[in-house]
Amino acid sequence: QVQLVEFGGGLVQAGGSLRLSCAASGSFFSIILMGWYRQAPGKQRELVALIRDGGRTTYADSVKGRFTISRDQALNTVYLQMNSLKPEDTAVYYCNAITRLTAGPLNSWGQGTQVTVSS
User: Fold this and answer.
1) DSSP states of the chain
2) Which residue from 24, 47, 65, 101 could staple onto 76, CB 3.0 to 4.6 Å apart?
3) 8 Å CB contact between 31 and 76
């Protein structure tokens, strides 16, 4: 019912930048929040950043000051600008969205995009 398509992963050197984007499509009334999570090999999936429908944002302590989440409500798209990347940022990054449907809220995930930061 809701599809999330991610773009922008890749390989970058430490100190470099990448921008991820995630577009939501499907049959929903509105988006409650969108965000990014990441999962490194052997580790649990963790929150990176999220943005609520009122614009309020939340960041993991490890990315504060380096990553910025933003959105284009007209395009149902969320972005993650990642600057000053570190090798420990290497992970698969997943887009997440909670949307309002007729039957209630729905939690959806993208397919994931690999981010690799070389030292």
Assistant:
1) -EEEEEE--EEEETT--EEEEEEEEES-SEEEEEEEEEE-TTS--EEEEEEETTS-EEE-GGGTTTEEEEEEGGGTEEEEEE-S--GGG-EEEEEEEEEEETTEEEEEE---EEEEEE-
2) 24
3) yes
Which pLDDT value is given to residue 52?
Answer: 95
Question: Confidence band (pLDDT; 50, 70, 90) for 85?
Answer: very high
Scored b (16 or more CB within 10 A) or e, 7-32 reads: ebbeebeeeeebebbbbbeeebeebb
C-alpha dihedral sign at 86, 65, 63, 106: negative
Q: Which residues pair with 70 in a beta bridge?
A: 79
Structure tokens given for 104: 């209630």
